[in-house]
């Protein structure tokens, strides 16, 4: 018999009803997770560069990964299960004779935004010290807790782990977050590789964004779901140098005596996360002129108008500083969220709950951002910004920037404010 308890949802702060399940509790308590491994190969020689760890539960209703993680979601214990799967896979991988192979481990963004339980920390730390590890972040909820997620990404990189962004194409809405995550490996979802309409607009949108990111940052593209020789040709035509799928091996035990690929995994250059503000960063390379609040409003409005015209996934961050956030702006931003754009609004008088999918970020009155006004618009292949700061005369020093790399850096200065 199931009983119910209440908790707080991580996405929007809503109350969520969780189901207590004694059978599932026994799976976690007994660590009854059996990892299986699927090869990731270089398409150049079709030999493995590593293995992705996948989870199986005990025989019965929790055996498949989908049933296992569905039960964890119902019980409100998804992160706990995620960390346990990573720990058991790490332990098994350390025991196996697979020299030179990388371990690919799936972790949900919400999991990376939590601290691992004490009983799995040791396995996680040991595997990142001893072996090459690739942390795969699923894309569907990348922007739910961006501050903690990006902190976790930086921590993983400090431990020499690589970052892979998984399931790209399953939900194009996260393409805009790709430059912020700065992945070493971009995994194109099987729905793209197996698409019967590879020239469709939706597929082209994903592929162009991925190719642009890979070209600019030196990331590798990994094609999932390869089951036929023809799909290898499709993957290569999309820029993939790595592949995964039943053609190369189904999930199972780690093999012995593996002949590794001669090709190595890429490692991108980490982005520096500045502890300044958007104005301080952008003013270093952009012209700044004195202007009025009204004229800056026109500059910022021009950036937001461009957001209304885009059909691509994007992120809009608006800092109103110590000014007001009025109903007109709320209506405008609600329209953008309905078009799939993530909208963050910062300000000293901004509440967390702005309604709909607009995310409010309250600022402390002592925060330097209280004296600034900023509009940052970031897509998967472009970036635009209007920025200003109040000067001693009461007017604003303001400028604009259309360099995507600088806009990304400016967006990253806000990450520590996006804790909610």
UniProtKB/TrEMBL annotation:
Top-rank lineage group of the source organism: Bacteria
InterPro entries linked: Cyclic-di-GMP_PDE-like, EAL_dom, EAL_sf
Domain EAL per the UniProt entry, residue ranges: 17-265
Name of the molecule in the record: EAL domain-containing protein
């Amino acid at each position: 018999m199931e009983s119910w308890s209440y908790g707080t949802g991580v996405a929007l702060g809503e109350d969520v009803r969780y189901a207590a399940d004694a059978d599932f509790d026994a799976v976690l308590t007994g660590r009854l997770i059996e990892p299986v491994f699927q090869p990731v190969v270089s398409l150049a020689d079709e030999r493995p560069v590593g293995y992705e760890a996948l989870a199986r539960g005990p025989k019965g209703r929790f055996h498949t990964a989908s049933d296992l993680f569905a039960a964890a979601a119902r019980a409100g214990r998804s992160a706990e299960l995620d960390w346990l799967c990573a720990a058991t896979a790490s332990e098994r991988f350390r025991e196996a004779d697979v020299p030179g192979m990388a371990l690919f481990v799936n972790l949900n963004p919400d999991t990376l935004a939590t601290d691992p339980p004490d009983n799995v920390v040791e396995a996680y730390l040991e595997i990142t010290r001893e072996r090459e590890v690739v942390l795969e972040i699923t894309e569907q909820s990348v922007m739910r807790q961006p501050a903690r997620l990006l902190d976790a990404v930086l921590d993983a990189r400090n431990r020499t782990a690589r970052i892979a962004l998984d399931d790209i194409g399953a939900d194009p809405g996260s393409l805009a977050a790709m430059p912020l995550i700065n992945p070493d490996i971009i995994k194109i979802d099987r729905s793209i590789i197996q698409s019967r309409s590879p020239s469709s607009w939706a597929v082209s949108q994903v592929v162009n964004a991925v190719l642009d990111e890979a070209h600019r940052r030196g990331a590798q593209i990994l094609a999932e779901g390869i089951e036929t020789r023809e799909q290898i040709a499709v993957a290569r035509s999309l820029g993939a140098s790595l592949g995964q799928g039943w053609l190369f091996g189904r999930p199972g035990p780690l093999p012995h005596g593996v002949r590794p690929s001669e090709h190595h995994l890429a490692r991108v250059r980490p982005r520096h996360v500045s502890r300044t503000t958007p104005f301080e960063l952008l003013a270093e390379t952009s012209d700044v002129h004195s202007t009025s609040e009204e004229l800056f409003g026109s500059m910022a409005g021009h950036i937001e108008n461009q957001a209304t015209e885009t059909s691509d996934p994007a992120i809009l961050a608006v800092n109103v500083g110590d000014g007001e956030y009025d109903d007109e702006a709320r209506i405008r931003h609600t329209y953008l969220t309905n078009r799939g754009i993530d909208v963050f609004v910062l300000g000293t008088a901004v509440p967390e709950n702005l309604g709909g999918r607009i995310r409010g970020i309250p600022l402390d009155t002592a925060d330097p951002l209280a004296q600034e006004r900023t509009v940052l618009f970031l897509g998967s292949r472009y970036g635009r910004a209007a920025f200003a700061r109040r000067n001693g005369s009461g007017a604003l020093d303001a400028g604009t920037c259309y360099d995507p790399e600088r806009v990304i850096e400016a967006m990253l200065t806000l990450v520590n404010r996006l804790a909610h």
